[in-house]
Amino acid sequence: MIGVPYNTIMVITFTNGKGGTGKTTLSVLLALALKEAGRAVAIHDTDLLQKTATRWSQEVGGIELAEPGKAPITIVDTPPRLDSAQTLTLLRKSDVIILVTSPSPADLFTSQDTAALIRREGLSDRAYILYNRIEVGTVLARDLEAMAAKLGLPALASRIHHRQAYQHAVLVGWKALGSKAREETLRVALEITAIEQPLQRLRSALQPDNRI
Ligand SMILES: Nc1ncnc2c1ncn2[C@@H]1O[C@H](COP(=O)(O)OP(=O)(O)O)[C@@H](O)[C@H]1O
Ligand SMILES: [Mg+2]
């Protein structure tokens, strides 16, 4: 079994006010990894301008599109803007919020705005930074701890490297990935689904013998 217990409903939302940080790519990759691990997972595509996740699901197949709550695990892909009421509602309803960012200083600025919004909404107890497009040995890759401190949110221990295979995966699915790419994607999926959700924590505090 990987991560969250099978009887739990989990909504995982990928966000960043900036476009191009990898929200859609990682939504799709995470769904593929969870499916590979035998989990029932759906994608909820709320980026209605681009609809990349929708098109991917329809053209590549294998992952259902559904509203949160229909599948045990729902991955929500969001548009690159934070000023919509819909995005705020989605963030509030999420069990886990993943702020996707590259280690580039340009992404740090918009990620700071997104992190500030998450903190302002009182959602930092469920929000984590996921570093994407890491290039091994670069100066930027060494500064990730400092960047997380600036954003004021914890970073996931697992990270996603820059790999062309991830671009192909959005075209052809899991088979595009080599063993290293599969391994790191599964590691991220496992870390995210293992996060203890605030609601779960609350329920187990109230009923110590009846954990969900
Ligand atoms: N880890 C990665 N390695 C290589 N290319 C990536 C990676 N993550 C994202 N990309 C590429 O970056 C571009 C933007 O990614 P996308 O997921 O569409 O961003 P967003 O949904 O945040 O706008 C796409 O062309 C995608 O293939
Ligand atoms: Mg997108």
Q: Can you give me a brief rundown of this structure?
A:
The chain is of the alpha/beta class. The protein has helices at residues 23-36, 52-59, 85-93, 105-120, 139-142, 144-151, 164-172, 179-193, 198-206, and strands at residues 10-15, 41-45, 64-65, 73-77, 96-101, 127-131.
Structural features:
binds adenosine-5'-diphosphate; alpha/beta; Rossmann fold; six-stranded parallel beta sheet; 212 residues; single chain; globular; 9 helices; binds magnesium ion
Subunit arrangement of the protein: single chain
Would you identify the CATH H-level superfamily? P-loop containing nucleotide triphosphate hydrolases
Percentage of residues in DSSP E strands = 5-15%
Query: What's the architecture, going by CATH?
Result: 3-Layer(aba) Sandwich
Q: Could you say what the CATH topology is called? A: Rossmann fold
User: Main β-sheet, in a few words?
Assistant: 6 strands, parallel
* Average pLDDT metric: 88
* Overall strand count: 6
Kindly name the structural category. alpha/beta
State the end-to-end CA separation.
15 Å
Global shape: globular
Q: What is the helix fraction of residues, given as a range?
A: 40-55%
Number of domains: 1
Secondary-structure element pattern, one letter each? EHEHEEHEHEHHHHH
Low-confidence stretches at least 5 residues in length (pLDDT < 50)?
none
In the CATH scheme, the class would be Alpha Beta
SS field, number of helical segments: 9
Rg calc: 16 Å
Strand neighbour order, sheet with most strands: 3-2-4-1-5-6
